[in-house]
Amino acid sequence: MKIITSVAAMEKEMRIHRDANKSIGFVPTMGYLHEGHMTLVKKAREENDLVILSIFVNPLQFGPNEDFDSYPRDFDRDEKLAKNNGVDLIFYPQVEDMYKDSFSFEVKVVNKVNVLCGKKRKGHFDGVATVLIKLFNITQANKVYFGMKDAQQVAIVQSLIKDFNFPIELVPVNTVREEDGLAKSSRNVYLTEYERQEAPQIYKALISAKSAIINGEKNSYNVQNAIKEHITQHTSGVIDYVEVLSYPELETIGELSGKVLIAVAVKFTKARLIDNITVDMKL
């Protein structure tokens, strides 16, 4: 496994692989890898000749009161996990190299951002889009892999690829969960022991909502209220949002139809957890 830390060296390396007609799978991450990331790597390994994993804690997607400085980092641990799971190349750039000059242009995401996490994290997806444009150009990958745990991000990245004609295919991968249902996340380490016991109730609320829809519930407000009641009764977390939206359009709907996203965010003492589930009512 090779580790490359500079943009120039990465661009040179990728030209070699593209000239050799290798199919390239790309897994962008902010590090502190877990099983969820490795599931993306496994999928990329199955479908490509070369698997690239980037580790870059992108400052542009953190707000002024968010956890950029305290975001968990452990490159030695990440390196071992990546190597043991079949990654061929880690791209590990520094902020000074990725953003060495002031930009003449600004990336602004205008659709699908005024709901879910984007509603309260102004500029977050602008930062995500900015770094992905750079990473797509640097890696020249054929496919990019994202987890559905952040379904809003998946929808926005799909639009980014379509709107700017990037020759890359987005491959969404199902959320990876602990045995008790909690979605795997780098931020789970911030949960207290008591909160960790409560946190799986988020997924249980989503499963209950999906069951209600399958059994005929079509009123989105009833679904939202049932989820809020479950989380409030079974956890000490504070609900940030519960939303039921069309997917991938991410539009508010009253009467449920088509493919629906049910998404929640819950704040605990030192961790904000997100989770979601989709229901395709056409099936």
TrEMBL record:
Top-rank taxon: Bacteria
Kindly give the Pfam families that the UniProt entry links to this protein: Pantoate_ligase
| Reactions catalysed, as given in the entry | (R)-pantoate + beta-alanine + ATP = (R)-pantothenate + AMP + diphosphate + H(+)
Keyword list, A-Z: ATP-binding, Cytoplasm, Ligase, Nucleotide-binding, Pantothenate biosynthesis
Q: Might you give the EC number(s) for this enzyme?
A: 6.3.2.1
UniProt GO MF annotations: ATP binding; pantoate-beta-alanine ligase activity
GO biological process per UniProt: pantothenate biosynthetic process
Query: Per UniProt, where does (R)-pantoate bind?
Result: 61, 153
Q: What is its biological role?
A: Catalyzes the condensation of pantoate with beta-alanine in an ATP-dependent reaction via a pantoyl-adenylate intermediate.
Miscellaneous note, as given in the UniProt record, is:
The reaction proceeds by a bi uni uni bi ping pong mechanism.
Q: What is this protein called?
A: Pantothenate synthetase
Query: What gene name is listed for this protein?
Result: panC
